[in-house]
Amino acid sequence: MSAVVDEVGKAIGRADERAPISSLLKDNLRKVFPDHWSFMLGEIALYSFIILLLTGVYLTIWYQPSMQEVVYHGSYQPLVGIPMSEAYNSALHISFDVRGGLLIRQIHHWAALFFMAAMAVHMFRIFFTGAFRKPREFNWVIGGSMILIGLLEGFAGYSLPDDLLSGVGVRIVAGIIESIPVVGTYLLFFIFGGQYPGHDFIPRLYTFHVLLVPGILLASVGLHLVLIFYHKHTQYPGPGRTNENVVGFPLFPVYTAKAGGFFFIVFGVTVLMAALVTINPIWAYGPYVPDQVTAGSQPDWYIGFVDGALRAFPNWEWEDFLGHTWSWNILLPCVVMPGILVTLLLSYPFLEAWITGDTREHHLLDRPRNAATRTGLGVMAITFYGILVINGANDIVAQAFNLSINQLTWFTRIGVFVIPPLAFIATRRFCLGLQRRDRDLLMHGRESGQILRLPHGEFIEIHTPISDEEKAVILAKRDIAPIEAPPETDENGVKTPGLRAKKWRAKLSNAYFGENVQRPTLAEIEAAEHHHHDEVAHEIDVLHEAGAPVPSELTD
Amino acid sequence: MTSTSVRRNKATGLVVLLAGLVMTGVGYAAVTSTAEASVTTASQTQIDQGKQLFQQGCATCHGLAAQGSSEGPSLIGVGAAAVNFQVSTGRMPMAAPANQAPQKPPIYTDEQIAALASYVASLGPGPAVPSDEDLNTSDANLAEGGVLFRTNCAQCHNFAGRGGALSNGKYAPNMMGATPRQIYEAMLTGPQNMPVFNDKTLPPAQKRAILKYINELQTAPSPGGLALGSLGPVTEGIFIWTAGLGALLAVAVWIGAKVR
Prior knowledge:
heterodimer, A: about 550 residues, mainly alpha, Cytochrome Bc1 Complex, Chain C, 2 domains, two-stranded antiparallel sheet, about 5% strand, B: about 260 residues, Cytochrome Bc1 Complex, Chain D, domain 2, 11 helices
């Protein structure tokens, strides 16, 4: 045994003479990370990405990125003798004639859906806890870009089998490209190498899907993780946790074990799903033929919002205006709307910092209720997205619930503007209510539900003080005053520069913080506690005077 | 008279035209007589029984002589196939006015349906109920059926025949419970919102190929496991957000739980 240890030691020693291995390990293995289940959502995305890389390599061995026409002679009977592209032929070959091919294909596709869904919920966690604030704005931008890139990567993967479903998707994307004013048609010819569909698109998409985008994603994941190490992980408020420390466990052995175990669980769940549940049955869709289409042609869920917007949008089109056709019905829902959404998403940390005027570093997370406006905005965005996703499936929804697709379209057209603001208002009020409750808990403690009737007839409810842990969580709330509008002129009568922007900023800042419930000061809490003590003492006196027994709840 | 002078004669054109018309008429009668033949095979008693059933169960909407009313279309000339399809799938008689007659357990027995069909067929020529030979798919090509299905059926009924939505609450039904005869009748008669695929647009051999493909859809096991309704990416998305992410979040909560 000791011989083995010696050998390992020697090997490390030899490595150390050439690269700073042990000092790197020493510095980083003991790095402390805080513990919370919501910190593992990004891990799901990371592990799905690793699964995607592994299974993707397996699929590339047999996949043929070619639109050359061949006749199918594989073992799936309902397609034998049918002409199809080499791409679809090879995807069928993988599914039916390669050992484990269908399982790997299904793992790959389920992992892709996991990747996108996990990135989304990870983003929700980052957003609602304010983890994107200084100094982590740049990492938010990297993460947001990864979602956008993942979306494109997912679409490319969905299109590669060249089945009937994906062909319809490519047709729609070709239409979206064409809708870009003036340059659309040129762009389409550039991307497709001529008329749609042509013979170049699948090979080009393949390079994009297996080389370019995974490379970009891998680099982004690396940078994302390096920045997490550099910034240190944020933590939720609690006893002993401040903006200057990290309370948790070391990377080695606690998180190496937890994260390693979690990787295998994510892999296991993905394999189990792939083994039991069909995803993208390309054989059932048949090869892509431009004159065929199937009911229920939908993109994978993460692109559903674009499809939903396209399905809801009125048929606005200018024909021959300035010598071009302006397809507002495609351009606005499929290019402009996602463009605005992505811009807002990526710039949110900077917008919020500008509005709040908050330039401090934040390593302690916000409880979502304590940033009522931000939480409201987040729920508003999710509601907006959700309505569009549902409308993207409007035919399935109509079929499943016996509804009219036309009425669903109108519901979306109106609802997408009305429901998100209502969600914002409701969420904000809900958060403010929770803030008030926190304030009550601090000042008066928790209602115990025990009612005492005093001898002179008065009813009182006994309040029990909250634990120190709860107190620490509530007290961590930071209060920032809204920015005040600057005076129009200074004392010398000189007009304030940039007055209009500053006024706007003050207005937004007031809207952002306006109704926030101020955390009680320590003096106020103390005063409330004294008051409580006095009250109890008074009650005991009353009971003594009446000669009644004093309940133990009061004397504790 | 030389042949050229015959052609130049002014009356020749008229004669040829008349001859053409006569031949078309005779030919048409010959074609339609097959439909008449099926009518005549039905016994008069069956037609009378059908008429009685019709006047009790159908005449409210379709009129006492099946001439139609504001509530329902004329049934003269729809043929026995239409009656058999509508009544054997329970669509007719309708329980209540709606966008579309929903499928439900049939109300009439097979014998009564045959009587109704022969009565309606006696009113005017129309497609007959397909025979067992029409439905014999042993020579049909499965893959060709798949191509025809995707070209003609999938845009409404979905790639796996699971149905789909149409405008204003109408829909193409799920075909998983439909019999070959009903499917063939539907193609012949175009019930509800479905177009008619007559024997010119879709010859009987192609109809049988489609029947064979639909039978495959109805009976073949799903190679990839649970099919999630064969409805495409929507149910897959619902699955990943509920079962998939639900399972992983449960594990994350378990791993991230505080050690007390």
